[in-house]
Prior knowledge:
Elements: E1 2-4, E2 50-55, E3 64-66, E4 69-79, E5 90-102, E6 108-120, E7 131-133, E8 136-140, E9 145-150, E10 155-160, H1 161-165, E11 179-181, E12 184-188, E13 196-200, E14 206-210, E15 222-226, E16 229-236, E17 239-243, E18 250-254, E19 268-270, E20 273-278, E21 282-288, E22 295-300, E23 315-317, E24 320-325, E25 330-335, E26 341-345, H2 352-355, E27 366-371, E28 376-381, E29 385-392, E30 395-403, E31 409-411, E32 414-416, E33 422-424, E34 427-431, E35 435-440
Antiparallel strand pairs: 1-6, 2-35, 3-4, 4-5, 5-6, 7-8, 8-9, 9-10, 11-12, 12-13, 13-14, 15-16, 16-17, 17-18, 19-20, 20-21, 21-22, 23-24, 24-25, 25-26, 27-28, 28-29, 29-30, 31-32, 33-34, 34-35
Amino acid sequence: MKLLLPLLVFALPVAEVRGDDWPQWLGEKRDATWREEGVVRKFPEGGPEVLWRSPVAHGYCGPAVAKGRVFLMDFVIEKGRLINDAGAQVELSGEERVRCFDATNGKPLWTYSEKRDYEVSYPGGPRATPTVDGGQVFALGAMGHLACLTTDGELKWKKDFGSEYGARVPMWGHSAPPLVHGDAVICMVGGEGSLVVAFDRHTGQERWRSLTADHCGYCPPQIIRHAGVEQLVTWHALGVTGHNPRTGEPYWMIPIKPTGGSAIAMPRKLGNKLFASGYNRIGGLIELDDDKPAAGMAWRSGPKEGVYPVNSTPYLLDGMIYGVDVDRSALMGVSMESGERLWESRAPVLAPEIAGRQRVPRYGTAFLVYHPGHRHFWVLGEMGDLIIAELSPGGYREISRAHVLAPTNSSGSRKVLWSHPAFAMKSAFVRNDEELIRVDLSE
């Protein structure tokens, strides 16, 4: 293990007024909603300006932005060959790092790193976006190593899910970003009786553990409030569960069991409904009890109903489900009431030369973030295009598009960018396996 001290900065940059932060997976409220004002409704001629670029190494995890700093994980490969094979776990050795950058100019401020041996499918780096809260950074690596750091890079405590809990590493690595709730940080861990574990955020001491499953899956935990009660919602190999977030006690369980434990895209809530769906056409709409913490099924998805997101989390709005279907590699608009597919478009998901084919590859990916002030979506497609679009029951309407970053990873024979962006400081922060950039989206 080694800790690289912050770089000395001799010239102070001109102060910048910060906008909203994006301190964790899907933003401040973990809801994929960007509420900041003063951002563009349409790109200028020639596209938005890239304010800075900073070199990074391999990784799938997106950046977190908090208090003028950007936090990101990456992996420097020192031994082995990067091969993406969905059916095989590949061995790599190198340094797994937590990086911190100045959000104003992109200069590296500090790096925390540990030597790590990977043995996962699609081994190109960490998956989980760091969670930044109250001067702490919680970073989870692909092999199940959790580190609690200060925002200045000092290690406070760490956990090894494998050695401490007997947790099996999922085929595609640990992927669920830690969730801070009060004085606890909640993680999908795995192992006997420890599928979900809450740690004291200050000491790392275990607060509670709950459930047993073959492995912990990939889906981030979240807190919802319904029936006047806070509920911790998790999706994993057993199904979708609602817990008491202070004790881990399960309130309810819906046995939507994903094939191979591949619970990935986070269930989304609108009103008293919760939509969960994913790989192999498994999922449906869950109805939450309005009087007590309980739940039942409203409808289950079928071969021609619903939508099956995998790499990206869907968005629920005005009675609609908007999500990218794994089989058709298309963004779909689906009725929440019936599950009926109203429309689909591959334009924001696949590169044009691929989207136009009669048969397209599976696992096309696009990340959706909603801006309620403008009532439009920000979409990052896997080809590296940043798109402004309107989504409605009537269809997909593209307003503006700009190519902002090259796809450097691969899926099959095509190049892909599979890292969720952050939206903060009137900008988009986007990474691939070579660089982290800040794109100016100010009005």
